[in-house]
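@channel sequence for tomorrow's demo:
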Amino acid sequence: MLSGGCDRPGQGQKDPEHSNPPEERSLHTTGGETTRRRQLPHGRWEPVWAVQWESADLSYLTEKQFKGRMNGVSGKLYQDGKPFGRFGADAATAYKESDRLTLSGHVKLTMLRSKRTAKSKSGMPKTRLTCDELEWDAGEGVIKAKKNVYVDTLDYKIGPFTEYWATPDFTLAGTPDLFLKNPAARSKMKHGAKGL
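structure tokens (generated this afternoon):
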């Protein structure tokens, strides 16, 4: 007995480019540094964060899809092209598709500029935040600290908090529920870093 049939054109044939998902690749490096910049609507570029690392691992699927984990990190966070904080942490993770930087492990953020962070007579900064995890997304314009969060100023020390959010100048700060109740904070998050 002989049986036969035919497929519609293209059916049963695999497209070599789409038959298998891209394979994740990784790269390990020793010390280095990078600055993430974003392009503003009028074409000017501004920094959003800068990181120096002792070692790094880069994982990528395609040129547009990758993330990097850096170990033994220090650097600066920026708003409107100006540094507002200096940080140190065990590790940082950066994502190509966004302006987000996530810090983890023994995170220390020292505020460089704000009404509440002018230096004291002793030269010590007024505001320092410590936590286990911190996320900075320049587009949102809000520092999000998580796990064992303490805020230390010349006037007070508060904590621990499970989660604590603040604007880069610390004029708006608090737990997420209280932070989001503030109309100025909601406007800032809706309109991005230039919302206030």
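heads up for whoever presents: The domain at 25-191 is CATH 2.60.450.10 (lipopolysaccharide transport protein A fold).
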